[in-house]
Specification:
By secondary structure, the protein is of the alpha/beta class. Helices cover about 35% and strands about 15% of the residues. Strands 2-1-3-4-6-5-7 form a seven-stranded mixed sheet, with helices on both faces. Strand 5, helix 8 and strand 6 form a beta-alpha-beta unit. It is globular, with a radius of gyration of 20 Å.
Length: about 290
């Protein structure tokens, strides 16, 4: 990680005042992001925030960094392009259960299997909150909404199973009410070389209050942690076994393994091409390549 040009302050990182509903879990996620970025000393000019559509995807509006608010479900392919073309940047993607697991689900699969070097925070609230209470991909069976007035009948996806199975090299779960733990998970995801995802349970106080009380000790629940001393974090089978309990399951790192990133592999290819033709500029190499494909 490159040395910071100056020590960032929260005042420098803050942009517009967040417009989430009172007590929304996303406030805590934003504060945690500020804390971790400051702690790690990431240079201000090297931070990029990308998001799609949804309450959680408003993140770029509230952060004073390079930022892009993209179309629904397409944040990951855009972030992939930024990460591959500018490996010196720290690319962060923010989204919700709809943007990440529904319309953006296929992009999630391919960004994960390619092991693109970026950090993805998915704020899961089990409901479509921005459009005022519709069933989402993670809504439990039986839960009533505007689109399922008799109760959801479609089986919800298991985010942790999906993330592990698609090839993400860092997969963790945290809870927006557990700030210290959330800070730790964000920091580890950022420092991980490759595709790091943190599934963050973030309560929608307007349309699904109490959704995650079972994981909050202050609400009578239990915040049960992954035992990293006994859990083999490099085992896909162990991670999938751990992910079987999804209500809300254990919190912490489910899977962590260092593998070559797409960034590293592609830049090796670029360097080899340049070494084979040292007298030709990069742009001319691209032009010749495109001409040969016609």
């Amino acid at each position: 990680m490159s040395a910071p040009t100056e020590k960032l302050t929260k005042k420098q990182l803050k942009a517009d005042h967040p417009t989430w509903c009172p007590a929304c879990g996303d406030f805590a996620v934003l504060a945690s992001f500020f804390n971790v970025v400051q702690k790690l000393g990431i240079p201000h000019e090297k931070i990029v925030c990308v998001a799609g559509i949804g309450c959680s995807s408003r993140f770029p509006y509230f952060v004073n960094t390079h930022g892009i608010h993209f179309i629904h479900g397409r944040a990951l392919p855009l972030a992939t392009g930024i990460s591959l073309s500018r490996p010196d940047l720290h690319v962060f993607v923010f989204g919700g259960d709809g943007d990440g697991y529904s319309i953006g689900g296929n992009h999630l699969t391919h960004a994960a299997r390619k092991n693109v070097n970026l950090s993805y925070v998915i704020m899961d609230n089990y409901v479509y909150g921005l459009t005022k209470n519709q069933t989402s991909p993670t809504t439990p069976i039986g839960r009533k909404s505007k689109t399922d007035p008799r109760g959801a009948i479609d089986r919800p996806i298991n985010p942790m199973t999906q993330l592990v199975a698609t090839g993400a090299t860092f997969v963790a779960r945290t809870h927006a009410a557990q700030v210290k733990h959330m800070n730790e998970m964000f920091e580890r995801a950022i420092l991980h070389p490759g595709f790091g995802v943190v599934e963050t349970l973030s309560e929608c106080t307007m349309f699904y209050p109490g959704a995650f009380d079972s994981g909050n000790p202050r609400k009578g629940g239990e915040f049960e942690l992954v035992d990293e001393e006994t859990q083999d974090l490099e085992s896909t089978d162990a991670a999938l076994k751990l992910a079987e309990d999804n209500s809300p399951g254990k919190f912490g790192v489910y899977y962590e393994k260092k593998l070559p990133t797409k960034n590293e592999l592609e830049w090796e290819w670029v360097k080899d091409a340049q070494a084979a033709a040292p007298d030709i500029s990069g742009k001319d190499l691209l032009r010749k390549r495109f001409a040969s494909m016609r």
